[in-house]
Amino acid sequence: MTDGKAFVQELAGTDPQMPIGALQDHLRNKLVARFTDTLGDVNGVSRFIRNIADQALARGLDLHAITSTRFECPSQPNIHNLRPRWARPMPGYPQLDIVVPSSRGLARLADRLRPDVVHISTPGPIGMAGRKWARKNGVPLVGTYHTDFPAYVEHLFDEPCLTWTCAKFMRWFYQPFARLFTRSADYGRALERMGYPGDRIVRLIPGIDTEAFHSRHRDPTGAVWTNCPGVRPASVKVLYVGRVSVEKNLPLLAKVWPRVSQACRSRGIDTQLLVVGDGPYKAPMTAALLDAGASAAACFLGFRHGRELSTIYATSDLFAFPSTTDTLGQVVMEAQSAGLPVIVTDRGGPSEVVDDGHTGFVLSPDAVESWVEAIVRLIEDAILRHRMGAAAHLKIQPLAIARSFDHFWQTHIEVDAAPKPASASNRPRNR
Length: 431
Known about the structure:
By secondary structure, the protein is α/β, with parallel strands linked by helices. The protein is 43% helix and 17% strand.
């Protein structure tokens, strides 16, 4: 990152002779409204959206996150949570809500903010409302393809017709967007195959809060485990963080873990699988581990937040993430930043933030034996584990959220600067 005037000029993409004060005003006079269906939820996408909102607030830039949820959201001036008209737990997935927002309320808020660019983070009801407002008012659209919904539908329902319908909807939804961020090169290619123009796809520089997720949060006393029933302080801990659902490919981990546990017992090594999160696969996974005689070697810790989550990351020993549908794998970056070696599949975004053989292992999701061997190898070889964990930490440190925000904001400035219809350029401003 450059600094001072050069940085602001680069970000604004304007005349290098423009006075620094005028450049700062140019940036601050731009407003981005970010519509999202997930903000109070406990997941990597929500954390990323909140981090971006924090960055904007700290820099005095007008980015407003807009949602409608019963979940608690941060209380700050650039986050707006409108009360839903109707909300109920999702059937079969009570940790998530089905929400019907007030379309009129969302439109009134957008009318008051009068954004220069509308950003859609999710293609749900709130995202649909933001898209509708932007189209009606001639405001350019930018989005982020955070979630591979067609792949999720395929995993959850195994019904080709539903998967095809979901993919067709996604093509329609994103067609008018001026730019669409993707979190990985793999999903950039997937969007092109879906029919989205390649010249409008932008791979967003990945970033996380490297201060919140850092190896310095390791608790050498093990006191963090006193609030985690069943966790043995002296065990070697294999961590998973995320939704406990089949679309995260957790059946693979349920198949692998009993064999890992048995191999470690035969070597006299005490090891445990720690699952942080919740979801509809928790009961089936618990039952599968019980049937395999490995239930004592696994602990389901539910949702954990803030400093406790940071400490759990840093005080664990390695991270296993079997998902094949993640567009990036925010938790994989968080685990590496916390100093853990990671094991991921070779499908989707996580493989692009892991250096195979250096910061962890990238394996086929079909190679069950390879997963068993890799996890056991890291459990029993503390030197390798620590060396890979240290390399993982160093790899992620340059990927701070500030760098990702710079790229995010610059793209919106470029979209705003592009030629617009007269009806859009003459919109009244209410600031």
